[in-house]
Amino acid sequence: MIARGDGPASALASGRSFGLYPASAFRLADRASAGASPGRWYFRDETIAIPIVPDSVASYAHGVRAYDDVLRWAGTVDVDRPPALPPLVWVAAPDLATGARVDANATSIRFGSGAARPLALVPKHPLNRSYFDRSSAEFFAARTLKVRGRADGAQFIARTLWPEDFALERNPRFAPLANGAALPAALRALFREAPQGGARAPFETRTLWRRDAGGNAPTLAPGRAVLAIMLNGAQGDDDEAHGGHFALVTGRIEEDGAIGDWLASNFYPLDFESEKGIIAAPVPLDNYLADLNAGQAYYRPSYLLAMTLRSDRAAGLLQGGLNRFYQQFYRHQLVFEHSTMNCTGISVDALRAVGGDAPPRAPAAPVLAALAFPWLVASKRSLAKGRSLYDYLSTDQTRLMPGAAFEEVGARMLALAKAGPSPDAGATRGRLAQLVAEDAESVVWIRIPQIPSSRAFGDAPVDSPAEYRTRLPPEPQIVPVPPRPFPQAMRDADLLPRPRRPSDYALVAWTAIVIAALAWCVIRLW
N or C: which end of the chain has fewer CB within 10 A? Predict the structure, then answer.
């Protein structure tokens, strides 16, 4: 273990981890050493960690859809064995240090008791409209930091600055929620209780449930596995992002309560450049939240619902399924689609495929959308935009809206934990749901504020298409992004065509209606 406060060392040094995995099972790779694969193609200019032993990497099936692949795998995998490794982890920088301090201008950094060294920040991404500023420097100067970056002689070039006080207490305040049908609404109230969704509020943790609520043992025992759901709020300067973002997280409770080494499975569009340089990948939580360009915490508040487990089985099963999803995602068997297969839809599908209970929430307005399909196309002056709007109104909201998924999945997690193991329920529960019920020890709520910068402060996310419309101003601010086409030569021959969208059926039905109407008119005229 590297002593706290020592200078920068390899991000893969002994004692480091990526969620459930020891970092020593990986090697750092860049453009020259990563090799060729669909996933690595996206990280040509990035630092990634790839497994040392190729046979230890999660596999995937050919000629099937990602959901069916993981569904079959989850039914037979041995959950008592460590899960196979992800194809890569986006570490973004080769060096890491803890216990660091920066000055109020963010021009120097000190590691432990050593002398101050010059500090530089990675450049702002060309498409990023906001960045680290004076308020950011003052925020970080007031606390000790975990930093990721690159030592360049005497200078340190920072990529991620993570506040070390954003950590779990050993015994967070106990504040249970209501039971039963009120749970989704109670979770919604949690992320909306502070102004602007807690964007300016302090970091907070509280225990919502624990198996031994009256005991004196620590709620969060070091070494315990963690399975968590992540909800990021609405951006303050991008009207396309009022719905927020959703991700699944696995890791372990650390001795000091640190959460930065937990692994977030972040799904983002691959075929378009992100305006903040985000690339879909398993990524350490400190990078996911505090990368100077891609960090979610720089542009909205965030919330975690973390379940601690007495064994690795549930978290390992979920992470193993996510790793297979990434294999299919990078090779384009699984394709990102904002209205039907976004970050929420992919994550909820992964949960369901491994037997996690993710209750559906009815589509917003499927009948109205079907009846108004021609108007949707005409009002948008675009068949593609009209179809997309139809899909938004016709998709299970738990797969569409990050807030809805957080409420429904979080409520089910709490209900399973409270219900506990039951031999009679084994036949009706999915495999992950049964493991959660057997192994859950506590459920902890974590609120992470927005990091100050030149970006406008965000808010709590909306949780329905109707609420989304109430947030939109007369002239929405949307950030345009350029395409990033995947090389045709890297596509496998066994890829199945995309599944049909809800709007495909509406288009066929209305085309038939129009043709029939025209035919009737012609016959009448003739």
Answer: C
* Type and span of the H or E element at 470: helix 465-471
The runs of H, that is alpha helices, within 181-340 are 183-192, 285-290, 313-330
279 in a domain, yes or no?
A: no
What's the number of domains the chain is made of?
2
Which of 162, 186, 216 terminates a domain? The answer is 162
Q: For the chain, how long is the longest CA-to-CA vector?
A: 94
Tokens of 365: 């307005």
Give 214: exposed, middle or buried? Use CB within 10 Å, 0-12, 13-18, 19+: exposed
402-457 pLDDT, tens digit each: 999 999 999 999 999 999 887 766 667 899 999 999 999 999 999 999 999 999 99
pLDDT category, 2, cuts 50, 70, 90? very low
Within a domain: residue 416?
no
Is 425 inside a domain boundary? no
- 484: which strand partners? none
| Residue 309: inside a domain | no
- pLDDT at residue number 216: 59
Nearest in space to 329 (alpha carbons), one of 492, 452, 201:
492
**Full-model pTM:** 0.95
To 5 degrees, how large is the angle CA 372–CA 376–CA 382? 150
What 3-state class would DSSP assign to 348?
Answer: helix
**CA 255 to CA 217: how far, in whole Å?**
15
C-beta separation of 93 from 149 below 8 A: yes
pLDDT in tens, 262-271: 999 999 999 9
Give the 3-state DSSP-derived string for 15-28, with helices as H, strands as E and coil as C: CCEECCEEHHHEEE
Of the residues 124, 144, 162, which one is the last residue of a structural domain? 162
- DSSP structure class, residue 124: P
Q: Which domain holds residue 56?
A: 9-162
pLDDT (tens digit per residue) in 458-478: 999 999 988 998 888 877 777
